[in-house]
What we know:
Helices cover about 70% and strands about 0% of the residues of chain A. Chain A has about 350 residues and is an all-alpha fold. In chain A, about 50% of the residues are buried. Chain B has two domains: about 1-95 and about 180-260, P-loop containing nucleotide triphosphate hydrolases (Rossmann fold, 3-Layer(aba) Sandwich), CATH 3.40.50; about 110-180, no CATH class. Classes of the chains: A mainly alpha (about 350), B alpha/beta (about 270).
Amino acid sequence: MKSVVELFGRSQSSQTGDQLLSSRGRLAVLVAVGALALFAPIADAYEPFWLNMLVRMMIFALLALSLDFVFGYAGLLSFGHAAMFGAGGYAAAMLISEVTANALVVLPAAMVVGAVVAGIIGWFSVRARGIYFAMLTLAFAQLFYVMAFTDLPATILGVESFTGGDNGLYGIQRYALFGVDFTPTLVYFYLTLAAVALSFVALLRLSNSPFGRVLQGIRENEERVQFLGYDVRRYKVLGFALSGAFAGLAGGLYVPFQSVSHPGLLHWMISGELVVMLLLGGLGTLWGPMLGAALVVFLEEQLAGFASWEIVLGGIFVVVVIFAPRGLAGAIISVRDDPTNVATNAKRAIRNYIDKVRR
Amino acid sequence: MNETVTATASDVSETDPILRTEGVTKKFGTLTAIDDVSIEIPADEITSIIGPNGAGKTTLFNLFTGKHEPTGGRIEFRGESIGGLAPHEIVDRGVVRSFQITNFFGELTALENVRIATQAHYSGFGPGDFARHHASLEEPIADAYEILERVHLEDAARTTAANLSYGQRRHLEIGIALAARPELLLMDEPTAGMSPEETHEVVDLVRAIADDVTLVLIEHDTDIVMELSDQIAVLNEGELLSWGAPAEIQADERVQRAYLGGGGRE
Lengths: 359, 266
């Protein structure tokens, strides 16, 4: 049986050999983080709108990163990552308004909540494979969505309001830490940048760990890994929970930034958009999906006034899937490997596609 | 019929069996793939399972290794029931299989393929297994090199598995199985589709492995089976037709009719 990842075009992670990121790649990441850090004050001074967008780009990049760890890297297509995103967001909202706005308490708590929700969804879903796994995660995520929307926990606990129903929880203030107030967007930007950069390093490290190698083996050949004595289900559930932790962190960053936690965060539309970000960016590279996320947020932002911006996104998506099946990351890698051949490669891609259509 | 067959088996071997089945049966819907098979695999010897296509040889392997759960009967490894255990639990006990269709990680190097297998003995879910770089685990890599030497692939260690020759792939397949540290190794057609020269190499390899591992082979090539095996079990339509030393099997008329004489190899 073909794996879902194969159907979407192969991941590239193993092409780089032992390391998921070469030394040149590391340099590129450092340059990107540095450029963002320098750009932020300029944007803040001249056009705060851009800064606002950058923060959202980074948060969704983190969410896409978390999904790529299980989908691109371990081959588990989750259509329910919004559940962990939303759960982390709600956890942050409740803690901030009821307990503390300390980022070092709330953000780790959001990660734990994300991991627990992912662990529950994963434990039930890994019994199925491929598209059935995807549908189970989707169903569970919608279950969490309905629970938040109808405020089911409040009914069960016998309290007046828990998730705030369809209104959600609003008026959530931003974090504070060591006397620093994160309310100004520029300060919040640096908190987000630090969290996203650390998460990237952590997931990169995890991908290259012995645990990550087994996950990659599961993506490539699940049966074989099983017959080497690995408890495949346990690895999958753990990988899923780890991914959920980072999705929860993204939620924990998003909700105080937007000052509201609402059921829409758990909706399957977000999960679907995430899969689009991954495919646009390039599965299994970790950095590619982050670029994909930034692109989607950028388009959404720029074309928001245009009534049907999804048409534009859809058009770009179709073009990328046909001509750059390995996404932005694949295109960047092929240009890097052979900068002179861009025109030839483009021609070949078009010819291949036309041949495919004719057949 | 089974009683007489089992009686012959105990004449063949005096040692305690490493694997024993008792009336094991597997049904897929209305199809009975394995029908009431009782067999004893003696330790430290080479046993071959032969039979026409569709006789249930691979299904029997799948039952031994936990891919399928038996519909009825009992499977014992070293006196402990393993029927219905998960594959990884059976591997932990020392029953490992190699696959008929080469079944590895095509995008990884030969070394990496074996290393994923050896790693199972060193890592689990401790903090180091998440935080360390996989290449910093030295023992699994050393073990993997040792195994590559055993299967004569030391020069191809850094070659991506998908770029290995057909013969090399079969060696890698055997190497991966060895890396799981089998006490009992079930090999599904190790020489299928090979040239005579490659076949010869694999036969030598199988002999070398048999020095410290109990082997069960599924093999179509009757010459190889007669040459290598200490015992032969003949399956036909899911039933154990005959069971004994190569000379006995060759002389068995039922086997002649069902398999050896019946048009030769498929």
